[in-house]
Amino acid sequence: MAKFKVVTPSGASFTVQGGGYKLEMEALAPLDAEIVEIAAKSDDDFVKQARDADALYAKGRRITKRIIDGLERCKVIALGSVGVDSVDVAAATARGIPVTNVPDTFIEEVADHAMMLILATYRRVTTMDRMVREGRWAEGRPLLSQFPRLMGQTLGFVAFGHVARAVAKRAAPFGVHMLAYDPYVEELVVSQHGVEPVTLTELLQRSDIVSMHAPATDAAHHLLTEHHFRLMKPEALFISTGRGPTTDEAALIKALKEGWIAAAGLDVFEQEPVDPNNPLLKMDNVILTPHAASASARFDPVRKRRVGAELALVLSGRWPRSCVNPSVLEKSSLSRWQPYSMERGPGA
Length: 348
Fold this sequence. Notes:
This protein is elongated. It folds into two domains: 4-104 and 297-330, NAD(P)-binding Rossmann-like Domain (Rossmann fold), CATH 3.40.50; 107-288, Rossmann fold. Helix 1 (22-28) packs parallel to helix 13 (299-315) and helix 5 (107-122) packs across helix 8 (162-171). It has 14 helices and twelve strands. The strands form two sheets. The chain has a seven-stranded parallel beta sheet with strand order 8-7-6-9-10-11-12, sandwiched between helices. A five-stranded parallel beta sheet has the order 2-1-3-4-5. Helix content is 33%, strand content 14%. With 348 residues, it is α/β, with parallel strands linked by helices.
């Protein structure tokens, strides 16, 4: 019997089922830890099998308060994603359980995808493609002749975290003016990226392209509503590569149908996979991708090794690297091993 038991829902998240846990085990095997899959339809069934787990590898199902409260000796809950909306972090915090994620492993991929959607939507790439295939060659140039060139347009970021900053780096050579709204980021951080900090209302009113990057938190749920889409320019584009629930999708659909905005490029949706009856699927002015922005050959190996490393750190009695509820760490028996950041020291 292994020294540590790490439980995880059976199946896979993001990747193909049946891939095994070889990469996660690179860090866990030296600790004599094992990963045990649990196939359970209900939370109660899951808890019965996970009650004695030392750690939980969260994927493939929502980790609810019921599950978390049933874990009698769990020391850490680890996620292989940036977003942590599939875990009740408040419940974990109440139990003193650190929740970890992988916030910095596929930023470049998502930024590339966001920039691709910006360019493809702006130049109506899917519409151009259909015109060529349908023998409507002569319609392409007149359509694009209605729009100004990208240089000189205004790109606004709703939230200015790692991905938005990486998109700003990519967008700058195109000659766009950039704005950002993020109440959690200092203005000095925004401005050093060549981006103007503004209010949300100002961003929506001034931007020709709005790029949504907010995380799926309670505060950001339906951050953009019908009111906000009515503030945007009728020729504006909406791009979203963050999380679907940050946008009121019904309001977005209405905005696109009624011409409050011109077009959209979306990688995320309120319901995933998308309902076959979703009106977005039938709109010519929308480009859609299947929540695939982070995908690359690097994606799975890096995130799986990172999950294994985070689990191993906590099981060996140390702080994890990326904790989304860090208030639990100081109160825990885990030892801090990282150096203290001095960036905000006296005189900074």
